Amino acid sequence: xxxxxxxxxxxxxxxxxxxxxxxxxxxxxxxxxxxxxxxxxxxxxxxxxxxxxxxxxxxxxxxxxxxxxxxxxxxxxxxxxxxxxxxxxxxxxxxxxxxxxxxxxxxxxxxxxxxxxxxxxxxxxxxxxxxxxx
Length: 134
What we know:
This protein is an alpha+beta fold. About 30% of the residues lie in helices and about 45% in strands. The protein contains 4 helices and 6 strands. The protein has helices at about 1-15, 20-25, 50-60, 125-130, and strands at about 30-35, 45-50, 65-75, 80-90, 100-110, 115-120. A 6-stranded mixed beta sheet has the order 2-1-6-5-4-3, sandwiched between helices. Strand 3 (about 65-75) and strand 4 (about 80-90) form a beta hairpin.
């Protein structure tokens, strides 16, 4: 199951990078829950459903020019969790300052759909949340 779940998550990242948001949404359950990192200011703690996914996408990339997200590593458990460590880059639209940041995502995949998506600033916290670390 974990290989299939990793493939689903990779397809979602590829679709996002290609700007195919409809393809991303097709990989998400209708009732998906997105939980934001508490360290990120000015963001609602959770978003729900496909509208919530669109809202979550808008928090970070819309503030940047030349936004990129690069997968650093993927860790999957034998069950439903897939952890994706990323490096994100962009140039502030207003400031012009180049910024790089690491974010780690935990996804739950059930019945070939992404049902939950958590965002973490610290990879260790993400691994603990997925039961893959201490």
